[in-house]
Amino acid sequence: xxxxxxxxxxxxxxxxxxxxxxxxxxxxxxxxxxxxxxxxxxxxxxxxxxxxxxxxxxxxxxxxxxxxxxxxxxxxxxxxxxxxxxxxxxxxxxxxxxxxxxxxxxxxxxxxxxxxxxxxxxxxxxxxxxxxxxxxxxxxxxxxxxxxxxxxxxxxxxxxxxxxxxxxxxxxxxxxxxxxxxxxxxxxxxxxxxxxxxxxxxxxxxxxxxxxxxxxxxxxxxxxxxxxxxxxxxxxxxxxxxxxxxxxxxxxxxxxxxxxxxxxxxxxxxxxxxxxxxxxxxxxxxxxxxxxxxxxxxxxxxxxxxxxxxxxxxxxxxxxxxxxxxxxxxxxxxxxxxxxxxxxxxxxxxxxxxxxxxxxxxxxxxxxxxxxxxxxxxxxxxxxxxxxxxxxxxxxxxxxxxxxxxxxxxxxxxxxxxxxxxxxxxxxxxxxxxxxxxxxxxxxxxxxxxxxxxxxxxxxxxxxxxxxxxxxxxxxxxxxxxxxxxxxxxxxxxxxxxxxxxxxxxxxxxxxx
Length: 513
Fold this sequence. Notes:
This protein is α/β, with parallel strands linked by helices. It is 32% helix and 27% strand.
């Protein structure tokens, strides 16, 4: 970006401090962000990135410090106050109503009214559709105002969230991990949208853990570490290695060495699997594949194309309509989840808070969720709390799980990334022959991501079978021995990873023949 310093400051944070029980999330942070700038916030999990932006968006109030917007000191009591001053935030998990149209979602709470018979107020949806279409065209967002959100792809839903902010006259947009769920072609479209937003004078603040995206998009990058601002870099003159080292506090080795070795016998065999959703719609149709000992099989696909339903059916959360699932040669299609765990399945789920953890329990209890009924955790149905503590302390150290009160920390107070580390630690520690990972590094910083990738490669080297579901093609290409691509519940292609290119996989993910 040319001449950031000569553009007016639109956001100024001075001495921002925010403490939660046992955690100092933001410690005396001061930043200035200029109009028309693309500004990145980088940091490890729990570094305070999202907390800082939630303060700017009015979701949290700072314990200390000041916020100035366009030179005026402000206090936000809610996001509505921030929205009034032109600040919008697109969260990582979208906040849309699926059975509403694009326009209905965008105007929700701000519905334009007209008078019927000159007396009764009615929502003027026709005018709203025109305005949404105009905004979509103006910013190159390519969104149909009348499309039902439930029928829209993840990429389109994200653009609806951006339109929602623009409709509310936001010119300071905060995007939290905006590419986490997108296919490569969709990421390229989003990058074009962000540049278009900046071209129209909007300021974009980007929370991301992807250094390559920062290099492609951002003008400047602030690095947070353990709640403190460490440095602000000019992205154009700073390499990714320096940014990564500043974020972690030391040089980061991102190389993953995967030994070339023959695979063993089949551990998981999926035969002609069909899974039905509600309303008799097939989520998965006649899918077959095998995962062998010492093999990483990755299922690629845009979110909502059946890959998660396959894993949930293997684990027992969903019921197979037809087909068989074999584990170590035994048919487990009708077995309970508890039986499948005992027979050798570990599972890192997509939704860490709903299905991975019990967030109101302690970290030590969560780390023993699948083993508490056996020695050394219990004897004659009496729990051994000392064993819980010892086990937790071992995993906390091995997996660098950060928490305010160690093993006694209540899980809901931990950052999302550290919650994810806890699940991965628990599932690998079970020592099962089949480990299923769904989005294992989603929301993790670069160091934690590299650590988990090494853990997956180590489990492969031990002869365990790995089934990986990821929305990040870079992760799939780095880890997989075999790649299967799903579109609309159908396995479009399965082949050795070395025979597939990123471009080919990306096209198959989007249904391109």
